[in-house]
Amino acid sequence: MARYQIRITDRSGCGIFEYFEADTIDEAKEISVDVSNAFLWKRRIYDTSTWWTKYKPIQTINVVELKEIKLRDEELITKYETVHPKIKWVTKRGGNKFKLHLSFIEVTFKDGVKKRDEWYTL
Predict the structure, then answer these.
(1) Calpha distance 95→65 (Å, rounded)
(2) Strand runs (DSSP E) across the chain, as ranges?
(3) Which of the 8 DSSP states describes residue 53?
(4) Where do the domains of the chain lie?
(5) Angle 91-4-96 (CA atoms, 0-180°, nearest 5)?
């Protein structure tokens, strides 16, 4: 099983990372769309209950395959302090990478009310 990371970040790299595992690239694409749409739905529900500004979704989300590397003891002391000190996850060179794009539909009713629905697609 390959491990993937969904990077829901803005241009400066601030945001949220979601992780999942998949056997094939097709399965990874399906799962990544489902996970990112679930995240978008949660943000939309959360933001309607607050009085701050409305959440503006990220237009393009990157999905990358990760690989596990084992660290030596001298690297542990000098560079990394992780939860599991012997393992580090990095982007796999030559691994699967793809992008999800935000799609939307906006409807304006006769009385002037606008309704917008958003989702992520490949």
Answers:
(1) 6
(2) 2-9, 15-22, 60-70, 87-91, 97-108, 114-121
(3) P
(4) 2-121
(5) 65
| Continuous segment of H or E residues that includes residue 25 | helix 25-48
The model's pTM: 0.76
**Longest Cα separation, the chain:** 68
What number of CA atoms fall less than 13 Å from residue 32's CA on the CB side?
31
Per-residue pLDDT for 32 more than 80?
A: yes
Q: Please give the C-alpha separations between residue 116 and each of 58, 69, 83, 88, in angstroms, as whole numbers.
A: 15, 43, 41, 41
Alpha-carbon 112 to chain mean position: 34
Dist. CA 27–CA 80, nearest whole Å: 32
With residue 75 as reference, give the H or E element that holds it. Answer: helix 73-78
The residues facing 103 across adjacent strands are 119
Tens digits of residue pLDDT in 75-95: 555 555 555 556 678 889 899
The full length of the chain comes to 122
How would you classify the pairing of strands 2-9 and 60-70?
antiparallel
